[in-house]
Amino acid sequence: MSTKIFAHRGASNYAPENTMAAFQMAERMQADGIETDVQLTKDQVPVLIHDESINRTTNKRGLVRNLTYEQLQQLDAGSWFHRDYAGESIISLDYFLSWIKQTSLLLNVELKTNKFPYPGIEEIVLQRLQEHHMTDRTTISSFNPDSIRRTAVLDSAIDTGFLTSKRPKQLFSLMEEIGAKAMHPKFRLLNKKLLVECQQRNIPIRVYTVNQPVYILKALEAACDTIISDVPDRALDLRKSYITS
Ligand code: G3P
Predict the structure, then answer these.
(1) Of the residues 8, 82, 132, 133, which is catalytic?
(2) Which of 40, 71, 176, 178 has the greatest number of beta carbons closer than 10 A?
């Protein structure tokens, strides 16, 4: 099985992150899957946005958790990237699932609970995935070990990935304790030692966010399970030439 290529927040180098434009572009590029971020609105609607605040990627200011879904829908989530994307909006997880379930794409939902815990987010997201029959092709990841633990307790069958940008001493025992099935490390953590340790434990490695050819090739060479990239087209091309070379 060759390394899978996931589009990070959609094809986010080419279209505004976490919008339908970026997701549809990833599908056209024939990425294997999409990685996206979930936060909860004031009225508990799971929406796709990376930051806790709307400041960077919309035309207004404020925190997602202080705004209702209806308020978020009024925002322009595309112009910050390029005026051609002025019509893009923040979408709900529900809307996104209605679209992705009709494709053959895999999905990685990151629960953005590392700054605000969003109590109940694990149940809410799992429920939406079940309603759309997407649990079999979805991985739930998080930097917050409590979110992974809660997800694994709620649904022991769903795939889970522990996100980490550091290499703490107790990484593997922590992963075991919280029930994480895969490791999602920052690409700079990828080295022989980590590879061997994961291989010995049969833990898939999914590296983020890998954009430069030299690092994409390194992850392909290491036979990582997945590469999460803002430039899925580049990673797919490199994978093609890597396989045929
Ligand atoms: O899930 C991979 C990657 O998105 C994790 O980092 O900061 O982009 O959420 P970040």
Answers:
(1) 8
(2) 40
Neighbours of 37 (CB within 10 A): 19
For residues 100 and 114, what is the distance between their CA atoms, to the nearest angstrom?
Answer: 26
Q: How big is the chain, counted in residues?
A: 245
The percent of residues in the chain predicted with pLDDT above 90, rounded, is 97
Query: 53: CA distance to ligand 1 center in Å?
Result: 16
The pLDDT value recorded for residue 1 is 62
| CA proximity to 124, closest of 36, 42, 44 | 44
CATH number of 4-186: 3.20.20.190
Closest CA to 86 of 58, 63, 53, 45: 58
Domains of the chain, by residue range, sit at: 4-186
Helix%, strand%, coil% for the chain, nearest 5: 40, 20, 40
Which residue among 110, 148, 206 is best mutated to probe the pocket of ligand 1, counting the most ligand atoms within 8 A of its Cβ?
110
Q: Which atom of ligand 1 is nearest the CA belonging to 108?
A: 1
